[in-house]
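Sanity check. The docking grid for pyridoxal-5'-phosphate depends on where the pocket ends up, so I'm generating a full predicted complex first rather than guessing from homology. Inputs follow.
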Amino acid sequence: MIIDLRSDTVTKPSPGMKEAMMNAPVGDDVFKEDPTVNELEVYAATLFGKEAALFCPSGTMTNQIAINVHTRPGDELIADVNAHIYNYEGGGISKNSGVQARLLAGDRGRLSLGQVEQAVQGDYDWLCRTSLVCLENTVNRAGGSVYDLNTMQAISVFCRDKQLAFHLDGARIFNAIQVAGYTPLAIGYLFDSISVCLSKGLGAPVGSLLLGTSDFIKQARRVRKVMGGGMRQAGILAAAGLYALKNNVERLKEDHKRSAFLGDTLQGCSWVKQVMPVETNIVIFELQPQVNSLHLEQELAANGIRVAGFGKQTIRMVTHLDIDDAMITKTAEVLTQLKVS
Ligand SMILES: *Cc1c(COP(=O)(O)O)cnc(C)c1O
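Predicted complex below; grid placement will be based on this.
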């Protein structure tokens, strides 16, 4: 038995999901003729109270399209230093859109209104034009931390007042929703655009959605084509996404319970220096300085447990749809009994 805790992207489609994919009516989505893609886009847009949605191959693409539509070359966007859009999208902010990033050190990846207010550039010829503020919820690189509604609301009001575009990288927004108790509608109201991943905790094999106004999505569709993301009989994939949204949202709570248990177990391990607070399905922990992290990863792998190195002396474990209680019990046993020098 392999216990793959590297990422929530490693899930395989369930029998029910595969059946939905097999039976999906399809058409050419570049011609807007795929009924299943159209259904998914309407379903997701309605859920978040947005006018329209766009189905894309990845969350990198939905984020990068949003940045491209909201900005002009030479502009600046504001994000936290941990942001996925900055760290893990291959330099796409500058490469795709000619935009630079003003990175702020938030509270475990979460920006405050005060920080955003201070970072917006004044209207002088020699300063960069700030045009976009990006939040991430949950924050992957900060251990799956969750924004509270008030903070997002305050920044939203500020952005509207200053005519700044406001984008949410909501790759794991449903994890946040399960924990914080706000609704997709409440989130949808605050942002100009939202990216939602179907291929993380929701368990679809491929796909992300970009949500926004009809006019925004019209522009986004054009950028998606330019980036090579116009897909044809994509309904086969969209069917998996629809199945995921209808069946796999509530159960994220189970993932959160399991990761909390892993976090508690790690707290009790002498070779662990620090565990980041576990809020959702991500557990990030730092090893004591004398521990060889590569060694530790190999030791866990020898026991059938796969984890992700996440920088020097730091390791990430993520719970997901294909991790059950028995796997967590086994992992906890191995962690507790591990001989680490
Ligand atoms: C996974 C992820 C994305 C999108 O990644 P893709 O692999 O391109 O789908 C975007 N933002 C965050 C925070 C993520 O964790």
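Relevant for the grid: The chain has a mean pLDDT of 97.
Also worth noting: The pocket of pyridoxal-5'-phosphate is lined by residues 58-60, 63, 84, 136, 140, 169, 171, 197, 199-200, 208 (CB under 6 Å).
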